[in-house]
Amino acid sequence: VGDSSVLSCPLNPNITLLTWTVSPKVGGPCNLGYRADTNTTDRRNCSDSMNWKFGPDLSPDLEIQQVGIAQEGIYICEVVTPEGNFHRTYHLTVLVPPRLSLHCDEHGNPVCQAAAGKPPAQVSWLQESNFSLEEESHDNGTVTVLSRLSACNANVTDITCVVFHPAGNWSESIAC
């Protein structure tokens, strides 16, 4: 999320027609097209964050600036040439790194939270196994994972929470 993404399309010197069809998970479809015989491009229902400039000397790649969850979906590029039609399909999935926080609850037990991640983060504890996990799903497709230690090992002074996620791994320690 927040990065730019470039989706490439097969380049062929004999392009007659080139189209990008975008079917997002949320909202209506978007179409971008280029006709070689008139050297024209067309754009329908596409957000300004999708940049595509195609012509005889330009690449047919599609750039999505500041990718967000709304851009998730299927992206299909079709190139029409005298030799045939060529397709490339992308299934764009957006990763949202969770925000890690660690605190002590009213009973002095450590509580680790991986907030608003997509997909849900995996939360665990170093040197501890007696914990609970709760998940809360949000309307935007992200999930908050909360883990609470119910009993700490008396020999351990600093407790470490570890968060695993496809966007990265994080850890934080606390003494309650």
Structure description:
This protein is mostly beta strands. It folds into 2 domains: 5-92, Immunoglobulins (Immunoglobulin-like, Sandwich), CATH 2.60.40.10; 99-174, Immunoglobulins (Immunoglobulin-like, Sandwich), CATH 2.60.40.10. The protein contains no helices and 15 strands. The protein has a 5-stranded antiparallel sheet, with no helix packed on it. A 4-stranded antiparallel sheet has the order 9-10-13-12, with no helix packed on it. Strands 1-6-5 form a 3-stranded antiparallel sheet, with no helix packed on it. Strand 2 and strand 3 form a beta hairpin. It starts with a strand and ends with a strand. One of its GO terms (molecular function) is signaling receptor activity. It holds the Pfam family V-set. One of its GO terms (biological process) is regulation of neuroinflammatory response.
- Round the Cα radius of gyration to an integer and report it: 23 Å
Mean pLDDT figure = 90
Looking at the structure, the CATH topology of the largest domain is Immunoglobulin-like
CATH class of the largest domain: Mainly Beta
Q: Tell me roughly what share of residues is in helical segments.
A: under 10%
Assigned CATH architecture of the largest domain: Sandwich
Helix and strand element order: EEEEEEEEEEEEEEE
CATH homology superfamily of the largest domain? Immunoglobulins
Distance between the termini: 34 Å
Physical arrangement of strands within the biggest beta sheet: 4-3-2-7-8
Largest sheet: 5 strands, antiparallel
Supply the number of structural domains: 2
Q: What characteristic shape results from the CA principal axes?
A: rod-shaped
GO cellular component, one term: external side of plasma membrane
Subcellular location: Membrane
Family: Belongs to the CD200R family.
Keywords: Disulfide bond, Glycoprotein, Membrane, Transmembrane, Transmembrane helix
